């Protein structure tokens, strides 16, 4: 049986739960309440795609303004940075301060230390609050704060996937902006919710790892 060393625990604000960081022989995992695997440095194909795919639709990637929420293990952030130019600015919003510290420390090597990139700015807090405070500010917003529309980490995140939350995110976009959402599980109604907010939607299935096995869902939604 694989040996995992428990490195650290972080409390999830606004809930009774925890995120727990573990190190294996060649990889790291973060588990919800020490049990359910939420992220792994071994499987990040769909997290990479969440950063890459919407950036490839940007009309001006060289100087784009991007928001990623949340940081997790930094793969979505790293993939977005890889697609944009030297004048771009990428804000990453992360609710849990320890997650930022883990990425500056033991976790950083797995994603190539994207927090050290001079184009990266960290927003310590709820991405929902940043969205509510932002008007026509971002060319691309990629949201992966939970397991998807049926979140598990904190119920407060349900709002982000509601009509109100989608419209707030849409309002934070510049003209011709792109909204991207990630989900571990399929959701038949979420694409329709995006359409009800007047967005053109592509639903894309992406393998969690490599070219076989479990697939995750990414919605790319654009203003008309
Ligand atoms: C599934 S992980 C993101 C994985 C990430 N895409 C990656 O590349 O590794 C979700 C992250 O969002 C953070 N988070 C949860 N709710 C949040 C919120 N409301 N605002 C900002 N970050 C949040 C969690 O602490 C966690 O780090």
Fold topology:
Layout lengths: L4 E7 L6 E6 L4 E5 L3 E5 L4 H11 L9 E5 L5 H9 L5 E6 L2 H8 L3 H4 L8 E5 L2 H6 L5 E6 L19 H9 L1 E11 L6 H7 L2 E9 L7 E9 L1
Parallel strand pairs: 5-6, 5-8, 6-7, 8-9
Antiparallel strand pairs: 1-2, 2-3, 3-4, 9-11, 10-11
Helix pairs in contact: 1-2
The structure holds S-adenosylmethionine.
Describe the structure.
The protein is an alpha/beta fold and 224 residues long. 24% of the residues lie in helices and 33% in strands. The protein contains seven helices and eleven strands. The strands form two sheets. The protein has a seven-stranded mixed beta sheet, sandwiched between helices. The chain has a four-stranded antiparallel beta sheet with strand order 1-2-3-4, covered by helices on one side. α1 packs parallel to α2. The chain is globular and about 50 Å long. It starts with a strand and ends with a strand. The mean pLDDT is 95. S-adenosylmethionine binds next to β4, α1, α2, β6 and α5.
């Amino acid at each position: 049986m694989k040996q995992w060393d428990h490195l650290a625990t972080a409390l999830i604000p606004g809930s009774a739960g925890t995120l727990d960081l573990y190190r294996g022989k060649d990889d790291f995992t973060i588990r919800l309440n020490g049990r359910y695997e939420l992220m792994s440095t071994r499987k990040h194909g769909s997290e990479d795609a969440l950063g890459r795919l919407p950036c490839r639709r940007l009309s001006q990637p060289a100087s784009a303004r991007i928001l990623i929420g949340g940081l997790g293990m930094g793969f979505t952030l790293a993939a977005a940075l890889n697609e944009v130019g030297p004048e771009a600015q990428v804000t990453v919003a992360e609710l849990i301060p320890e997650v930022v510290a883990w990425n500056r420390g033991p976790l950083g090597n797995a994603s190539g230390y994207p927090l050290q990139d001079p184009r990266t700015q960290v927003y310590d807090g709820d991405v929902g609050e940043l969205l509510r405070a932002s008007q026509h500010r971002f060319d691309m917003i990629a949201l992966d704060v939970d397991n998807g529309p049926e979140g598990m980490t904190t119920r407060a995140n349900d709002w982000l996937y509601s009509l109100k939350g989608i419209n707030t995110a849409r309002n934070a976009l510049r003209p011709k902006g792109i909204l991207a959402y990630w989900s571990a599980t399929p959701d038949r109604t979420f694409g329709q919710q995006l359409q009800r907010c007047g967005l053109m939607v592509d639903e894309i299935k992406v393998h969690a790892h490599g070219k076989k096995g479990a697939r995750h869902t990414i919605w790319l939604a654009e203003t008309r």
